[in-house]
Design a protein that fits this description.
15% strand, Rossmann fold, 9 helices, alpha/beta, seven-stranded parallel sheet, 241 residues
């Protein structure tokens, strides 16, 4: 049985992932720092046995506490971790404050590390296998104007993924990431229509993706069907490079 802890489950790729995993009969723990959004996701999930927990991924003690609550509730720890919590604080370099840069790194990178560390520590102590799926971005591979903070955080997540995979493989804990391109939602909503068309022209499939398409790959990486995939950063970009 898949028991999945999803951070940032209140919206976007996180919500789509919760729904997709629940359709596969997984039990899903929806976490977010927005209680209203988190509980809305919980209500949408098919099946039974799901739960929600208010978690700030930048606070390591809150993640440890959540893992203890989950283990006590289900009598076992989660065996899948999806690190979907992330924020944007876009600005051109010369206008970006140190606070804007730090906030994005703190959630997108440090928050991912915090969740991975607590998850792995719990599973190793209990001698349980697991699968970690991180959310990177094509911006981390190419850079993106106005997103030096976001691009840096996502590039670091890819390196973190590879290192965790090397270290934790001997414990039968896999770690992979998905690398979305232009996905409909928060990342594309603020782009002017003319600029959207310009970007679409550079994508071989000539369209933006959607969160459900990303969630399909995450569900595959969470399952035993991907049991020999470890340390991979899988692009979901429509061919955009």
């Amino acid at each position: 049985m898949i028991l999945a802890l999803v951070t940032g489950g209140g919206s976007g790729i996180g919500r789509a992932t919760c729904l997709r995993l629940a359709k596969d009969s997984a039990k899903v723990i929806v976490t977010d720092c927005n209680e209203s959004s988190m509980n809305k996701t919980l209500k949408l999930l098919p099946g039974e046995g799901h739960m929600s927990l208010l978690v700030d991924v930048t606070d390591y003690s809150k993640i440890l506490s959540a893992l203890k609550d989950i283990t006590n509730h289900y009598y076992e720890p989660p065996n899948v971790l999806v690190n979907s919590a992330g924020i944007l604080r876009d600005s051109l370099l010369l206008k970006m404050s140190s606070d804007m840069f730090r906030q994005v790194i703190d959630v997108n990178l440090n928050g991912t590390f915090n969740a991975i560390h607590a998850f792995c520590q719990t599973l190793v102590e209990l001698k349980k296998p697991g699968s970690i799926i991180n959310i990177s971005s094509v911006a981390g591979q190419m850079g993106n104007i106005g997103q030096c903070n976001y691009s840096a955080s996502k590039a670091a997540v890819e390196s973190l993924t590879k290192t965790v995979a090397r270290e934790m493989g001997k414990y039968n804990i896999r770690c992979n990431s998905v690398v979305p391109g232009f996905i409909k939602g928060q990342m594309t909503d603020g782009i002017p229509d003319k600029v959207k068309e310009m970007f679409k022209a550079q994508i071989p499939l000539q369209r933006f993706g959607n969160a459900e398409e990303v969630a399909e790959v995450i569900a595959f990486l969470a399952s035993n069907k991907s049991s020999y995939i470890n340390g991979a950063n899988i692009p979901i970009t429509g061919g955009f490079r």
